[in-house]
Amino acid sequence: MLRALTIQPEHIDGVQLIAGSLQGASADALKNAADKLRGNNESTIAVLATAVAADKVSVAVGISDALVKRGFNAGNLAKEFAAVCGAVAVANRIWLKQAVETG
Asked: Most buried by CB count within 10 Å: which residue of 13, 23, 29, 68?
């Protein structure tokens, strides 16, 4: 499954961020992959997502133990990510509805 993830990590203020999508992955597969990726480095955050439906995204966040001790919280990051995805999905539905209504 991880072989499908071909992005390069970003380094931001000493934190390695790995973010990407794993198409067709189950929620358990996302969690397992995020946990595996976070273990590769002391300062890693892994954010993985997959589209469950046209307007629904499943997301998993894994944070290395060292970053958790510094105050990073996987649940909070997942909620923020989901909110951003939801905002985009809602905006797209509104735009599509307006486009259909105006012809």
From this structure: 29
User: pLDDT tens for residues 57-90?
Assistant: 788 888 999 999 999 998 888 888 777 766 454 4
Residue type at position 28: D
pTM of the model: 0.72
How far is 2 from 50, CA to CA, in rounded Å? 13
Handedness of CA 84, 89, 90, 96 (dihedral sign): positive
The domain segmentation of the chain, as residue ranges, is: 2-102
Question: Could you give the dihedral angle defined by the CA atoms of residues 1, 43, 12 and 37, in that order, rounded to the nearest 10 degrees?
Answer: 0
pLDDT for 69: 92
* Domain 2-102 belongs in CATH node 3.10.310.40: yes
Name the helix (H) or strand (E) containing 65.
helix 65-69
